[in-house]
Amino acid sequence: MTETGLMTIGEVARAAGTSVQSIRHYEAEGLIETAGRSAGGHRLFDARALDRARFLRHCRELGFPLDAIRELLSLTGRPDRSCAEVDEVARRHLARVEDAIARLVALRTELSRMVDECGGGTVAECRVVEVLRDHHECLADRHPAPEGPRGL
Known about the structure:
This protein has about 150 residues and is mainly α. Helix content is about 55%, strand content about 5%. The chain has helices at about 10-15, 20-30, 45-60, 65-75, 85-115, 125-135; strands at about 5-10, 35, 45. The chain is elongated, with a radius of gyration of 23 Å.
């Protein structure tokens, strides 16, 4: 920490439990205020930036998408308002998580059945291959479509 109480990007990242790249990304996305610069050109952040970085890290750990995080940040800027709006953002995210869990449980059920029915013979008579070739062999009429880059 500098004499003025400001922190470098590395100090903020360490204190927030995140990476320097994440802090840069949050700054570029406008989620953390653009840092001032030292005479040597280093980014210098104040305690509010550290608080924001911790908030962002925790939101991301809980899987909140960036649009929901932006909404939450907007609401935190109005502390006199009812927390009902914040609660609604969290409820929407909870519904997405519950939907993802339901999709994953359905996928686990189908994959377990396929694996359990495999007799361990040759590929030509493999139950897993049979099911993958013919969707009519599945228990479900259709499989839940994955969302996002990793299926959630």
